[in-house]
Design a protein that fits this description.
Helix content: 10-25%
Number of strands: 46
Structural class: alpha+beta
Strand content: 35-45%
Length: 795
């Protein structure tokens, strides 16, 4: 029995299916389909590269890498490959003369497959690798202390009853060795400042690779061996230089939240998915300070824990705002609470641009401008203006009432004699004096105090030290041997010698802004020789201090209330080179009525401590968060980090410059060169050099020179304590290269070899045709010369 298939039973349906398949194949292999694909790809690529504003729209928020790995692009490339493959198979027979076209099409398809593998698995980031770490050991300490070799880095160590403080005072990459058989060589030198409770401070110098030259230097005295007869002040103290291994790299264009409890040595990360990059997302303009019409956008991203639980497990963690370029700023407004005078003034900056500053009269840190140019005071009565300083220099007023003698002594380098200066007679009073030292704005309970330490010799030839304070109730006569103004109790305090009175007036800012209870504002300009100007101020009206230098009061608030919020910079004030370093997020932690929000600034790297900030070159802003149960958790906003295949150490960094050396400009640099070591099989490998255009491969990743630690101008041997290494994989590169080579060979075959083959075939064809014609001609001639048969002749 024969069973017929459905298609056989219905030939019309079979023909219809074959017709649909043929139609689709005809469409895919048509020239217009290929041209349309190429045109769409051209516009897609042009938009992604030349018009980045499109992919950076709030609805898209794509990097260039993401744009060229988005599903529309992948679909277009897949259709192109299918069109090439089907067209090649259907319309180009596989013969010798078409081998070039087959190779071109096959190479393009192979290139696309290799590119998909490359971009589909691409990981790229960077890592700072520091040159050395200091390992500090002491008898009685639980474990050694470690300190990265960056100027300013510090740590402490407790050994028995003593507490030790250590800090990196300085480093030098080219310290010359002047002794023994290594004379003339240079080494990496680290100076570690050492302070022990109750002991003498000293500096220990260590040279990388030359531990035999380790020695101590006593500040103010010189090398220890010349003062105490041995190289080390504390011989039980061991300070060694080791490599500082780097185990992680941070991935480009990613976001992550890092969590830990205070005291824990390492962070636990939480990746933040779908966080914007190019646009501000704030639900209300009241959440920020903004001086331009910024649109509001809603953002609500959950940040769940990673594979392992962390200190915020069990809490709701969400990102509700993102700012692409902002910084936390304090601004003041008029309130209705207690008196708190605030004055906003504008002064010319160093480059001539106006600089606005908020001065707070009752805040000792904010009542002065940072450079000491001006200060702001509040007076109960206008008549108190006469009690303000009339000169910008510090003075000590001395008076002996019995002799009706008074004297004003300016405090300067000539009059501050120190503890070994000569006494200066005070007219014919029998008293003489010398100003030992001064100390301004010392922090004490209840505020600050400024003091001048003045040694006084009486007519009876006795000597005591008067601590002359700008607060009269704190002025004391001290007797004894201590010269420390910070610890006057070490001297015996006795009643004041009332025969001689002293008053100390600390150095005054040359510009003084004054507000009074009558709501009047005054401006005072004091010079070193006396008062130059005193004038009542009007809000918004500038006052010229000297030609080309004017000050202006922009606002005054008698009951100022401060608000601290992010200030969003307008587009024209944003530096593109800053990239994400000025970005911020608002994090909400908790649930229900216990939700708390925090603004977190971006950190380029998730360092475990502030040792690695490099004196401010790297941001480190962990934010403490108090949970509803009273516990505290630290969080930090940065990028995702991944573990390297093996730890990396920096052997040395070399800066190659043009003639004249590094001048602070990039134009003087020819190249950077780092020599890296990789930790494998419990040992460090040989040093491998990498340069800007000379990467090296290890463990499946390629390493290349990215950034560096520039030296500070005017400081020989500074900088170059770390190198920035780019890290990335290159999967599929060999497939891409093979595809390119095959396509190029196909082009060479199609454009150079194929014409030769065709020409040779034509020549052979012509030769055969010519040979055939000659044979026919010869056959005809031969036939014509043959004698005719008899029968034919008879006929």
């Amino acid at each position: 029995m024969t069973v017929m298939s459905t298609d056989s039973a219905h030939p019309s349906r079979s023909r219809k299916k074959r017709g649909i398949v043929r139609g689709v194949l005809d469409l895919i292999t048509s020239i217009w389909f290929g041209v349309a694909l190429l045109v769409v790809l051209f516009f897609y690529c042009s938009i992604g590269s030349a018009v980045p504003a499109v992919r950076q729209l709030p609805a898209m928020e794509m990097t260039e890498f993401e744009w060229f790995h988005w599903w529309p692009f992948d679909t277009l490339i897949a259709l192109l490959c299918i069109s090439l493959a089907v067209t090649t198979i259907r319309r180009i027979p596989l013969r010798l003369v078409t081998a070039g076209v087959w190779a071109i099409h096959g190479g393009i398809i192979l290139l696309c497959l290799g590119s998909y593998l490359y971009f589909g698995t691409k990981i790229e980031g960077d890592a700072p690798i520091f040159r050395r770490q200091v390992v500090i050991s002491l008898p009685g300490a639980k474990e050694p202390a470690r300190l990265v070799c960056l100027p300013g880095a510090s740590t402490s160590l407790i050994a028995g009853p003593d507490e030790w403080q250590f800090s990196i005072q300085s480093t030098n990459t080219d310290w010359p060795i002047l002794s023994d058989e290594h004379k003339g060589e240079t080494a990496y030198a680290v100076n570690v400042s050492v302070a022990k409770t109750g002991g003498e401070s000293f500096i220990r110098q260590i040279l990388a690779g030359y531990p035999q030259y380790t020695e101590d230097v006593i500040p103010g005295k010189g090398r220890a061996i010349k003062n105490i007869g041995r190289k080390l002040v504390e011989e039980d103290l061991s300070i060694e230089l080791n490599y500082e291994p780097q185990e992680y790299f941070h991935v480009m264009d990613t976001w992550a939240l890092y969590v830990r409890r205070p005291g824990e040595p390492h962070w636990r990360s939480r990746p933040i998915a779908d966080l914007p990059r190019y646009n501000d997302f704030v639900s209300s303009r009241e959440d920020v300070f903004v001086d331009f019409p910024m649109p509001t956008r809603v953002l609500d991203l959950e940040v769940p824990p990673n594979d392992t639980p962390d200190a915020l497990s069990g809490e709701s963690v969400r990102v509700t705002s993102y700012l692409q370029y902002a910084s936390m700023t304090r601004r003041w407004r008029e309130g209705d609470g207690q008196l708190n005078p605030v004055l906003r003034v504008t002064t010319p900056g160093r480059d001539g641009t106006p600089t606005a500053t908020d001065l707070v009269a009752f805040d000792r840190n904010r009542s002065h401008m940072g450079n000491g140019l001006a200060r702001f005071v509040w007076l109960e009565n206008d008549s108190d203006l006469t009690g303000l300083p009339t000169t910008s220099v510090a003075t000590v007023d001395v008076r002996v009432a019995e002799k009706d003698a008074s004297l004003t002594i300016p405090v300067n380098e000539r009059t501050v004699a120190g503890g070994s200066g000569e006494f200066t007679p005070f007219e014919d009073t029998g008293f003489s004096y010398r100003i030992r030292n001064v100390a301004d704005n010392l922090s004490i309970s209840g505020g600050t105090v400024s003091v001048a330490m003045v040694d006084v010799r009486t007519p009876e030839s006795t000597v005591f030290t008067r601590m002359v304070a700008d607060r009269a109730e704190m002025t004391k006569d001290l007797h004894g041997d201590s010269n420390d103004p910070h610890a006057p109790a070490q001297k015996e305090a006795k009643p004041l010698d009332e025969r001689i009175s002293m008053t100390y007036h600390p150095a005054s800012a040359p510009l003084i802004f004054v507000a009074t209870a009558s709501e009047k504002l005054y401006f005072i300009h004091n010079g070193p020789e006396g008062r130059e100007l005193m004038k009542e101020m009007t809000i918004g009206q500038p006052i010229e201090v000297v030609p080309g230098f004017a000050v202006r009061a922009d606002a005054y608030m008698a009951r100022g209330v401060s608000e601290v919020k992010p200030f969003v910079f307008p587009k024209e004030r944003r530096d593109r080179d800053v990239r994400s370093n000025m970005s911020m997020i608002r994090l909400e932690v908790g649930s229900g009525s216990s939700v708390k929000s925090y603004w977190l600034p971006f950190n380029q790297y998730a360092f475990d401590s502030d040792q690695y900030t490099g004196g401010g070159r790297f941001a480190y802003h962990p934010q403490p968060i108090r949970l509803s149960d009273g516990s505290v958790v630290e969080v930090l906003f940065s990028r995702e980090r991944r573990r390297l295949p093996s730890p990396i150490a920096l052997e040395e960094f070399e800066l190659l410059t043009h003639l004249g050396g590094y001048t602070g400009s990039a134009s003087t640099i020819r190249n950077y060169r780092s020599r890296l070591r990789f930790f494998e099989d419990n040992q460090w490998t040989a040093a491998v050099p990498i340069e800007v255009n000379q990467p090296t491969e290890h463990g499946g990743y390629w390493y290349f020179q990215s950034t560096w630690d520039p030296p500070q101008r005017g400081m020989a041997g500074s900088g170059m304590n770390y190198t920035g290494v780019g890290v990335g994989n290159r999967n599929g590169v060999h497939i891409q290269l093979a595809g390119c080579c095959i396509a190029v060979l196909g082009m060479i075959f199609a454009f150079y070899i194929k014409p030769i083959i065709i020409r040779q075939r034509r020549e052979r064809s012509r030769a055969k045709i010519s040979a055939g014609r000659r044979e026919d001609t010869e056959r005809e001639e031969t036939h014509s010369r043959k004698p005719r048969p008899v029968a034919e002749t008879a006929v």
